[in-house]
Amino acid sequence: MVSLKLQKRLAASVLKCGERKIWLDPNEINEISLANSRRNIARLHRDGLIIKKPVIVHSRARVRAWNEAKRKGRHTGAGKRKGTANARLPFKVLWMRRIRVLRRLLKKMRDAKKIDKYIYHQLYLLSKGNQFKNKRVLIETIHSMKSEKNKEKALAEQAEARKSRARDRNERRANRKPVPQGSE
């Protein structure tokens, strides 16, 4: 049995692969053993005596099926978890997501003149203090604050109107000429 170590190494170099991917025709060992240069090896490759084996299949079908199931929520029970809840999805990340949503909403409403800068500032500080669980709660609070403010404004206007009416009445009374008594 002739050693074909050299031929295998040269073939791997010529075909740009590893030696384990080289197939030497067992029926043509004598002819292959005579090839001692890269050019000869390339010629034998063209003739089909030396072949580069195909890449071994490493199927991802099972992985895809598993990931598809995980997307549906399978394989995520207590037994499959290694880290703490905080390690898997940090509380800080949840907080950042929530506070960014709330602050974005506040800025949008302030820029659209739906809320004034005083309500904005008050709600900004409240949201920083973890008062709002989500966007819906914040919107409800905004509506209630706006209605409260409108109610106060309406009451103030009514009081002002009442005061002005009373002032007018008093002025008219003061300007009215006194009726002389005993002129009957």
Q: Looking across the biggest beta sheet, what order are the strands in?
A: 1-2
Low-confidence stretches: none
Separation of the first and last Cα atoms:
158 Å
The portion of residues assigned to helices is 55-70%
Proportion of strand residues: under 5%
**Shape summary:** rod-shaped
Mean pLDDT: 94
Helix/strand/pairing category: mainly alpha
Instruction: Give the helices and strands as they follow along the chain.
Output: HEHHEHHHHH
Count of alpha/pi helices:
8
Overall number of strands: 2
| Biggest β-sheet description | 2 strands, antiparallel
Radius of gyration: 44 Å
Protein architecture, described:
- This protein is mainly α.
- About 65% of the residues lie in helices and about 5% in strands.
- A two-stranded antiparallel sheet has the order 1-2.
- The longest helix is centred in the last third of the chain and has 41 residues, at about 135-175.
- The protein is rod-shaped, with a radius of gyration of 44 Å.
